[in-house]
Design a protein that fits this description.
Radius of gyration: 23 Å
Largest sheet: 12 strands, mixed
Strand content: 15-25%
Helix content: 25-40%
Distance between the termini: 61 Å
Number of strands: 21
Shape: globular
Structural class: alpha/beta
Strand order of the largest sheet: 6-3-7-8-9-10-11-16-15-14-12-13
């Protein structure tokens, strides 16, 4: 029976792929139509009246009427929406809000998730992911076997209990279509547990008792923790001894590059595929559509109108964004989104480069606030991920997590970078690792190479290995353990580095 169901879904996904092809072939037409729909749907809202949406006919009008927004400028509107006010940023009342956990900051961001956004962006993005999985894997069995999801948790907003907030993954799980639920583990009660350590144990028990799992989705950092626990509980050598039919790991949230080696050890051989998605609190933006490539297809028909800020505009008071039709390949942009959740010309903070047109594909390069540019080196997360992965491969090491910050000018008049690295498998020679890591970063980033020339401006990076579990303990101390929480890879100041080192000093003493 399940084989027949899976065969039926294969045919369904073939039909769905045609709709994806439409925006691949006509990207600008689709985006222009979407902008018109978003504007028309919001003309009567407070925001629409304030910025004269009735006068907007095209992108130029839109950019002229509405300035670029950050969270602080939208926050007063969102707070009123959380208290039950209607027709503020989007039509009607909004009852769901995703709690952004992209950084370890104590301040949380709450992103509205309207009914339209949930259905036509996040859930549609999940169906698009399955469509592209079946397109790439003719033997896909997601609707014949089981898949596993690792989600966050939900809470009621005390001042207005009709409002619920939590990780976007938890909102999606809570609202999962009934047709999909029989094909997923664990049950919703376990999936939405707030206590991560309790959830981890229950997830592991559910997983080892279901051998027919063929797919799992989750942030690599916490998926590794789950897999280790499962192997510890069963005494097995790798995950294929627990899930012999496993086919695909769907990942996002952080770069997979530093984790690939660990996953290849979890799943030896070549039967497992790895598919990247870009599903943020603000929307489901992109999916890896060709598993032979390392970029993702930008989704243009799911309620998100895109603009892009060139790097030269990132820190200007009145930045100017360009539409999709004007982007250039290989150039760093911060994404700007207007969505069916009421985010208008909003900058989430993620940075991307375009790798192809027709279809438009992107790679995530980092965040506007996660880079090191204290000396003009313009180092992005994509650079450090690649340099670290290459170094680990050469010296047979494995990294669990890391963060990087500048070392400011000392008495020699030179600066540098400090790397806090937690190793899963440490290199034999830490000095040799640091030297090769520095060399690899120079090969990847020409600006860093120029500043490192004969150590005239920057000294060789300093490597500070951390004890096992250090990053997880630090996250736990901040109440940010589990779910979508992650360590900031790069910072242009020493806040996180000093905080982590201070925390480790306190716990050691």
């Amino acid at each position: 029976m399940r084989k027949l169901i899976n065969a039926a879904f294969k045919q369904y996904h073939k039909l769905r792929y045609r709709s994806l092809k439409r925006f691949m072939d006509q990207p600008h037409k689709v985006q222009r139509r979407l902008l018109k729909q978003l504007i028309e749907a919001s003309r009567h809202t407070e925001w629409g009246r304030t910025f004269n949406y009735r006068s907007i006919r095209n992108h130029e009008d839109f950019a002229k009427n509405v300035p670029i927004q950050d969270y602080e400028s939208l926050k007063p509107y969102i707070q009123r929406m959380m208290h039950g006010e209607k027709d503020v940023l989007w039509t009607g009342q909004v009852n769901w809000f995703s709690k952004s956990s992209g950084t370890t900051s104590d301040k949380s961001k709450f992103i509205p998730v309207t009914r339209q956004n949930l259905k036509h962006c996040h859930i549609r993005g999940s169906w698009d992911t399955m469509t592209l999985t079946y397109h790439n894997l003719p033997n896909a069995r997601q609707f014949e076997c089981k898949s596993m999801i690792m989600g966050g948790s939900l809470e009621r907003f005390e001042p207005y209990p009709k409002t619920m907030f939590g990780d976007v993954s938890a909102i999606m799980i809570q609202n999962m279509p009934l047709v999909g639920r029989p094909f997923y583990i664990p049950d919703i009660e376990v999936a939405l547990l707030a206590n991560w350590e309790e959830k981890l144990e229950k997830l592991a028990k559910a997983a080892i008792n279901e051998p027919k799992v063929v797919m799992i989705g989750g942030v690599p950092t916490w998926t590794v923790v789950l897999f280790r626990r499962m192997l510890e509980m069963t005494g097995k050598k790798n995950m294929l001894e627990i899930w012999p039919d496993f086919q695909v790991y769907i990942h996002g949230g952080v770069s997979f590059t530093p984790y690939r080696k660990q996953f290849e050890e979890f799943f030896p051989g070549d039967q497992v595929a790895y598919q990247e998605i870009y599903n943020a609190s603000e929307g489901f933006f992109a999916i890896q559509d060709d598993l032979s490539r390392d970029d993702m297809l930008l989704l243009l028909n799911n309620g998100v109108y895109y603009e892009f800020l060139p790097m030269s505009e990132w820190h200007k008071e009145n930045p100017e964004a360009v539409p999709l039709s004007e982007v250039q390949l290989g150039k760093n942009y911060a994404i700007v989104i207007s969505t069916n959740s009421g985010l208008w010309r909003y900058v989430p903070g993620d940075t991307v480069i375009f790798t192809s047109e027709y279809p438009y594909r992107i790679k995530i390069t980092g965040r506007t606030k996660q880079y090191v540019n204290a000396f003009g080196e313009e180092v992005m997360v994509d650079n450090t991920d690649k340099a670290l992965a290459k170094t680990c491969q050469t010296l047979n090491a494995t990294v669990a997590d890391y963060t990087v910050a500048p070392i400011y000018l000392d008495e020699t008049g030179k600066g540098g970078h400090e790397w806090l690295v937690e190793f899963e498998k440490a290199p034999r020679d830490m000095k040799a690792f640091a030297k090769l890591l520095d060399q690899n970063l120079q090969k990847i980033n020409s600006d860093y190479e120029a500043k490192r020339f004969k150590s005239m401006a920057l000294e060789q990076l300093r490597l500070h290995p951390l004890p096992e579990g250090a990053f997880h303990d630090w996250l736990r101390s901040k109440g940010k353990f589990g779910g979508q929480h992650k360590v900031p890879r790069l910072a242009n100041d020493r806040k996180y580095v000093e905080e982590i080192l201070d925390f480790l000093g306190q716990t050691t003493s």
